[in-house]
């Protein structure tokens, strides 16, 4: 093992310990199991796409640390991220890449431009894949329940256009979230392998929402 690879392994172990502690505070779909799945997906996508595996793995591990949904503010979350990064022997270019990925991959109401680097594309796809399929459905209801959001209101249509603030704080329902974000993700995937996986998971969610609405309306019997 080279000196660099040994150092990288040490940093990844430290990141795991740090994020496990952070994620233990959350039961709204942003827990350690989410981080594990996203990280595993990021490593797989990096291998398929030829991206830097260390940058992708570290960014995936840390991607929720500064999330404004999980902190008092985005600024407080970024300060927490930088404070931890200050304790690690990272090359400046690597640190810059990781911070750039984490700062640019969130959905934020769909208002963000496309990410630039291949590594950012990989980590963004990995995070979005975990918002799709059976796991995505479970996480959506877990998050909505934790935030006191109602499951469904047929009189409240999904929002078509939203500012970042409206996306974060406006009134919506769990089922509307599928239309406002989740159903859009398959067309926003960056990598060829990510698109393939997303299509399968998207189709499953569409079937679920159709069944949910039939049961809600009593038209399934």
Task: Explain what this protein looks like in three dimensions.
This protein has 221 residues and is mostly helical. It has one domain: Hypothetical protein af1432 (Orthogonal Bundle). 63% of the residues lie in helices and 0% in strands.
Topology:
Blueprint: H1 3-23, H2 32-49, H3 53-62, H4 74-85, H5 92-104, H6 118-129, H7 133-146, H8 164-169, H9 174-180, H10 192-217
Helix pairs in contact: 1-3, 2-3, 2-6, 3-5, 3-6, 5-6, 6-10, 7-10
Quickly describe the structure.
The protein is 63% helix and 0% strand.
Largest sheet: none
Helix content: 55-70%
CATH fold description = Hypothetical protein af1432
| Average pLDDT, all residues | 90
Based on secondary structure, the structural category is: mainly alpha
Count of helical segments? 10
Tally of discrete structural domains = 1
Low-confidence stretches: none
Shape: globular
Cα-to-Cα separation, first versus last residue: 62 Å
CA-atom Rg in angstroms: 18 Å
Oligomeric state as shown: single chain
**Strand tally:** 0
The name of the CATH architecture is Orthogonal Bundle
């Amino acid at each position: 093992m080279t000196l660099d690879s040994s150092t990288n392994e040490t940093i990844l172990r430290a990141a795991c310990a740090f994020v496990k502690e952070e994620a233990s505070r959350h039961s709204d779909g942003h827990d350690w199991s989410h981080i594990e799945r996203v990280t595993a997906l990021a490593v797989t996508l990096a291998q398929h796409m030829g991206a830097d595996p260390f940058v992708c793995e570290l960014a995936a591990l840390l991607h929720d640390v500064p999330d404004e949904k999980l902190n008092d503010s985005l600024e407080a979350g970024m300060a927490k991220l930088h404070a931890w990064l200050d304790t690690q022997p990272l090359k400046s270019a690597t640190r810059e890449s990781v911070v750039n990925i984490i700062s640019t991959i969130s959905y934020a109401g769909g208002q963000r431009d496309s990410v630039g680097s291949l590594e950012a594309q990989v980590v963004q796809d990995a995070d979005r894949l975990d918002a799709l399929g059976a796991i995505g459905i479970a996480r959506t209801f877990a998050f909505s329940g934790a935030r006191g959001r109602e499951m469904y209101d047929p009189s409240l249509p999904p929002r078509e256009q939203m500012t970042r603030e409206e996306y974060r704080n406006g009134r919506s329902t769990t089922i509307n979230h599928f239309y406002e974000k989740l159903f859009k993700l398959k067309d926003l995937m960056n990598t060829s392998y990510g698109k393939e996986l997303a299509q399968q998971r998207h189709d499953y969610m569409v079937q679920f929402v159709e069944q949910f609405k039939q049961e809600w309306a009593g038209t399934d019997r």
